[in-house]
Model the fold of this input.
Amino acid sequence: MSGDLVVRNARLLDGRLVDLLAQDGRWTRIGESLAADGAHELEADGRLVTAPLVDCHLHLDASLTAGTPRWNESGTLIEGINVWGELKPSLTEQDVFDRAHEIVRWSVAQGTMFIRAHADVSGENEAMVRGLLRLRDEVADLCTIQVTAFPQDGIFAREGDDERLENALRLGVDCVGGIPHYEPTSELGLKEVHRVFELAKQYGRRVDVHCDETDDPNSRFLEVMADDTVKYGLGGRVTASHCTAMGSYEPYYSSKLHGFLKRAGINVVVNPFANSLIQGRLDVYPKRRGFAQLKELLAAGVNVSLGNDVIMDPWYSLGRADMVEAASLALHFTYMSGRDEIVEMLRCATERGAKTLAVEDEYGIEEGKPADLVVFDAPSAIEVMRLHPARRWVIRRGRVVAETTPATTTLLGEPVTFAPPL
Ligand SMILES: [Zn+2]
Done:
């Protein structure tokens, strides 16, 4: 048998050790000791492999603008929105494309080959949505991008923003977004949620709403999203992002909400970098954590996945587009420290992300599916979450697209491996 590429001795998440054969960009055989004459060979040597990391929430239009035109000194969400509002009118399609393209390069180099991006469609400048749509189409061979039309300033606070959201759908975005808690009144927030669902139904798009990204326990638009998901028959195609108010809901309401979300089939996305740094800012001690109830949602059967959200932008001046770092941070803030929970957190950054993006037909290490793979320089999910290891190889459609040589460390001339002694 001949093939394009064979990966030898790869450790799957379920513990099996297999060879993987890719031909014409798809997995054609997965098994033990495969014959693969003529194929390019990679020796994984027992390293863990997974399907691609999935970044379910990333403001690619704002990435790499930190400090322009000024720094967000308070670190608050509101100052970030104000700084971004000052910068937005001057952005060009090419500028947005170039910065976002650089972040895609960082992402793929670290194994992230699926990204849901958000393009701000508030205000007159169309550079953000046009730049990201062009990027989506031009990098499709390397990375699958879905673009969400995101009305950062709401759709009812300024004349014309409602129309601009719809116009982004005509331009070809994949998802319609919203920000109901940011509308001037809760009535307008409700109206916004319904409008988002109407548009999704009318144009046949997915929904991804920034929902209840606040510490206000009275912000409860998520239950409205659940209700509309059922009414509009959009189960599996709806995502609620951030949902940080959930970190302040009391137990009775929380348990009722979990049931609603499960029944509606809504995906929830947690964004650990922004959530940990932005929420709880106005609290005196004791301070709240400001995370969606990730652990409890998983236990209730709700799909939860993760995003980088912010990378060197007005909200967060750090970041390097690594979904393993995002998962590790979420693990700590949501108490997912049990052995099985640590493994599950890596699934939140991989398989569960694919479910959120509804790309499962083209995702996964199975015969017939695209030959996309991440080879971690570690033997298990737990070691991945502990060490944040190099991605030894990143494979897209059967081709090695990124390679990292792991760093070596010595102490007094002796190697230090950061592994317990055998
Ligand atoms: Zn966001």
